[in-house]
Amino acid sequence: MGVRDFNTAGPVDPSDHYCIPPLQRVDLEEILHLIRRQKYFVLHGPRQTGKTSILKALADHLNATGEYRCVYANFELGQTAREDVPRAMRVLLGQIAGRSEVMLQDTFVRDERLAILDEYGGDGALNETLRRWARSRKRPLVLLIDEIDTLEGDSLISVLRQLRAGYDERPDGFPQSTILCGVLDVRNYRIFSSSLGSNVSGGSTFNIKAESLRLGDFSEIEVRSLLDQHTAETGQDFDADAVARIWDLTRGQPWLVNALAYQSCFRDEAGRDRSQPIGIAAIDRAKETLIRNRVTHLDQLAH
Ligand SMILES: Nc1ncnc2c1ncn2[C@@H]1O[C@H](COP(=O)(O)OP(=O)(O)OP(=O)(O)O)[C@@H](O)[C@H]1O
Ligand SMILES: [Mg+2]
Fold first, then answer.
1. What CATH number has the domain bearing residue 170?
2. N or C: which end of the chain has fewer CB within 10 A?
């Protein structure tokens, strides 16, 4: 038995999971070019396509070059603050603080954020923290914000505004580059602001955006390559018609491919016998099991 398996929960870790190297799924040269050119841009795609896996791999890549200080932050923590901007900023700055401590061994945000919140309030604290942080460090900051579109109304507007307001001070006085990642392209946000009593469009709030990169599903070649990793590590083959069935059932949806393969190779009684190839019947059984168990992402993906 190999030590890796198919991942069906959360971002991939290449040492634990069979995976397509996340940075091979995007045009890395283009992304590096945008970062070098100090652009703020968007990476978006449907649920469970590998966005977070890519951001985390990109952060590691950028930090390893030694040219940038890159921090990944997940803004979904701000969702339950709804339109309470001070509350949202407090938790988001806490998130940046925690992530930068772990990823960069940098305690600047941890040390400064409360005093800044006190002085500037939620409407300005993110902006001011990023200004001071950028100015106090030699290497340019790159900020990767995941789940930006889980924020609501005024909290989302405030984050976008605070980023825009510092844009002209980059790279010395603000992050050199920022990637906003979510399901939708910012341009398509229709944000209802309670304080303004009207809808605001993401496009106008964040008109500094240079590009939108969209992440899609696996190609047939990528599906094949993922399954081949299991074969290489365990000796267990997939029949050609089983591979074709996986493609027909998933059309390359990354999580579904993994879920079918995991169920048929690691849960299915017969499938766990590595001397037997995975046939089409095992894939169909796996499909039935996933539907019967109403596994977590199935409803979401159906949307
Ligand atoms: N590079 C990859 N190779 C193989 N499978 C992958 C890869 N990236 C993602 N997946 C599959 O997609 C699932 C979700 O990955 P990830 O959390 O990165 O996606 P996401 O787009 O951020 O999802 P969400 O929208 O729910 O936050 C993984 O559990 C795995 O099944
Ligand atoms: Mg994600």
1. 3.40.50.300
2. C
Peptide bond just before 171 cis, omega within 30 deg: yes
Same-domain status, 256 and 134: no
User: What domain range includes position 40?
Assistant: 22-214
233 by DSSP, 3-state: which?
helix
Please report where in the chains the tokens 């299915």 appear, as a residue: 268
How high is the mean pLDDT of the chain?
A: 95
Atom of ligand 1 nearest to the CA of 45: 21
Percent helix, strand, coil in the chain (nearest 5)?
Answer: 55, 15, 30
Predicted confidence band of residue 207 (pLDDT cuts 50, 70, 90) = confident
Exposure string over 150-163, b if 16+ CB within 10 A, otherwise e: bbbbbbbbbbbbbb
The residue among 135, 64, 126 whose CA lies nearest residue 96 is 126
Do 255 and 131 lie in one domain? The reply is no
Residues with CB under 6 A from ligand 1: 7-12, 19-20, 22, 25, 47-53, 226, 254-255, 258
- pLDDT given for residue 302 in this prediction: 64
Quote the pLDDT of residue 181.
97
